[in-house]
Design goal:
By secondary structure, this protein is of the alpha+beta class. Among the domains are: about 50 residues; about 160 residues, Elongation Factor Tu (Ef-tu), domain 3, CATH 2.40.30; about 50 residues. It is about 50% helix and about 20% strand. It has eleven helices and 15 strands. The strands form three sheets. The protein has a six-stranded antiparallel beta barrel. Strand 10 and strand 11 form a beta hairpin. Helix 3 runs antiparallel to helix 10, helix 4 packs antiparallel against helix 9 and helix 5 packs antiparallel against helix 8. The longest helix has 28 residues. The two termini are about 20 Å apart.
């Protein structure tokens, strides 16, 4: 852009200097340093070098950029399910630009959070020790076991023996009733019930016979009454026959078993506890006391350390799950404008591929592209600069050199360095990546 002009000026200076030297030589007026013979190789001539004078201005080409911008990408694969903002829209720092499907990640976070809550509760329980209620429950277990042992060692109580004897008597009485079968009164009542049912059946049969020739006899009330009377008679007859047959074998066997069970209970109460039962009861007392002592003593240091390690582990898993979930949301890193947004709803994205550009257009910088090693030595941070935008002829902007990249790159044989110039003012017509000419005053 501006380089041809700079080259032309340099050429004119060189040609002019050469012509002047030629004219001075013809007049015999060349300076001493041009006519003096050079020192032989290996010898050092007394210093007569003059200090290098920096040029009054340095001209370079550059590119207009927002003072703050970023290319955004996501470290996850998935489909876009939400785009709250559009291209060209202003966003605040932390505002969501796009979201990927994340149902599975939400579930993983919830599971990890539950594991953390459980591990934290376990650690707190170990650190705080048993509560008063837990100690009371453990003491109650000890007391109950001791009371049971005392009962077994003291033998049968008179009230327990009397109750067991009453149970045997009741079982024996019930067996006698079952074995004796029905008495005369029950047979008479059953026989009378059967006779009444027979009479009702006979009467219903006579009423039915009077209408039996009709085609609709089945729908008449006489047919229903006859059926009901037949059922009542059959039931009464069955009850009477059961009474005559006496007790059923199954009922008699069950009643006999109840007698034997009550007798065994009585014998057990009268004989007292066995040595094995007493030993078992004593062991239960010791177990309950050991459990109480363990609860009262509190947690061991190694148990607390193990619980702490488990909490650390599940907290790490929670952070990993939260990180995986956060990677599925693209957020604005600072206040600015969404300059480009290469996304569509339902689109599957590739990790690390740039999908959005965000920039703060409130201030601008120009990055030079052709400051050579010869020019850069005369540029310092803080030097004043004038910037001309190619798209805005006749308009210039004051600026200041704010940064010089120390590493040079080879561009077509020239080593060039990048310098950054911040503009003092802005203009609504400025656009990202416009070309500019920079004049730096060293």
């Amino acid at each position: 852009m501006k380089r041809p002009l700079v080259i032309a000026v340099v050429l004119l200076v060189v040609v002019g200097a050469g012509f002047g030297a030629y004219w001075l030589a013809q007049q015999g007026q060349l300076p001493d340093f041009l006519t003096r013979p050079t020192a032989p190789v290996g010898e050092i001539e007394p210093s007569s070098a003059r200090p290098v004078v920096a040029p009054s201005v340095i001209v370079a080409e550059g590119m207009l950029l927002p003072a703050r911008f970023a290319a955004l990408s996501m470290d996850a694969t998935g489909k876009v399910v939400d785009m709250p903002v559009a291209e060209g829209q202003q966003v605040a720092s932390g505002e969501v630009i796009a979201r990927l499907e994340s149902d599975a990640q939400v579930i993983y976070v919830a599971q990890a959070q539950a594991a953390v809550d459980q591990a934290r509760a376990m650690l707190e329980r170990l650190v705080n020790g048993a509560s008063a209620e837990e100690l009371a429950a453990a003491q109650a277990g000890v007391d109950a076991a001791a009371a049971n042992l005392a009962i077994l060692t003291q033998g049968a109580h008179p009230d327990d023996v009397a109750a067991a004897q009453a149970a045997v008597a009741a079982a024996q009485g019930a067996y006698a009733l079952v074995a004796a079968g029905p008495d005369d009164q029950e047979l008479i009542a059953a026989q009378a019930e059967m006779a009444n049912a027979q009479a009702a059946l006979t009467q219903a049969q006579r009423a039915y016979d009077k209408v039996s020739s009709r085609n609709d006899v089945g729908a008449l009330p006489q047919a229903a009454l006859l059926e009901q009377a037949s059922n009542n008679f059959a039931a009464a007859e069955a009850r009477y026959n059961d009474l005559l047959a006496g007790a059923e074998p199954g009922a008699l066997a069950q009643s006999s078993a109840e007698v034997l069970q009550a007798s065994a209970a009585l014998a057990r109460v009268q004989s007292g506890a066995t040595e094995a039962e007493i030993a078992a009861a004593a062991a239960e007392v010791r177990r309950a006391q050991a459990e109480y002592d363990l609860i009262a003593a509190g947690s061991r240091p190694e148990d607390i350390a193990s619980a702490q390690a488990e909490l650390n582990r599940v907290e790490t898993e929670l952070m990993q799950a939260q990180l995986a979930l956060s990677k599925r949301t693209l957020i604005a890193p600072f206040d600015g404008e969404v300059a480009s947004l290469d996304l569509r709803l339902g689109q599957a994205i590739t990790p690390s591929a740039p999908i959005a550009q965000i920039a703060d257009f409130s201030s601008w910088i120009v990055e030079t592209t052709d400051l050579t090693e010869i020019s850069i030595v005369n540029v310092r941070v803080g030097d004043a600069a004038m910037v001309e935008i190619d798209a805005l002829p006749g308009v210039s902007f004051d600026g200041t050199v704010t940064n010089i990249k120390p590493f040079g790159v080879n561009v077509q044989g020239d080593i060039t360095y990048k310098a950054t110039i911040r503009l003092d003012t802005s203009d609504p017509r400025l656009r990202w990546n416009m070309t500019a000419a920079v004049t730096i005053t060293p």
